[in-house]
Amino acid sequence: MQSFDTKTDVIIGRVDDLRPGACVSFELPDGNELAVYNVDGEYYATDNSCPHRGAPLAQGALCGHVIECWLHGWQFDVRSGECLTVPDRIRTYRVTIEDQMIKVILTTDDTDKKSGF
User: Fold this and answer.
1) How confident is the model at residue 5 (pLDDT cuts 50, 70, 90)?
2) Long-range contacts of 86-90 (CB under 8 A, 24+ apart)
3) Which residue in 72, 31, 76 sits closest to 55, CA to CA?
């Protein structure tokens, strides 16, 4: 069976709206949520749900490239999705900046949900 990878750009907002050190949640049309982070002018996006208990990661504390879940303290590297607390990970998404707009690249190919590629 052949798999097709369909990419979609989602505009999150303007660069000026997400200050360094901040993160926001963004609801997708399918009801899923992303967490989008500004780490010193570099932008990252992950799933917004902690795999431990489903708490929204965007409500956690961002310290450098690490987001800490507010509910139980699990920590994730927003660049790779790797959990620094236990052997787990969250999905990451590619982020681009075009005309001062933050865009997240989504794919509909579910063959590797956790790799971010």
Assistant:
1) low
2) 88/51, 88/52, 89/51, 89/114, 90/46, 90/47, 90/49, 90/50, 90/51, 90/57, 90/114
3) 72
Q: Which domains does the chain have, with CATH numbers?
A: 7-107 (2.102.10.10)
How far is Cα 5 from Cα 33, in angstroms, rounded to an integer?
20
Specify whether the CB–CB gap between 32 and 47 falls below 8 A.
yes
pLDDT per position as a tens digit, 61-101: 999 999 999 999 999 999 999 999 999 999 999 999 999 99
In angstroms, the CA 11 to CA 96 distance is 10
29-67: per-residue pLDDT in tens? Answer: 889 999 999 999 999 999 999 999 999 999 999 999 999
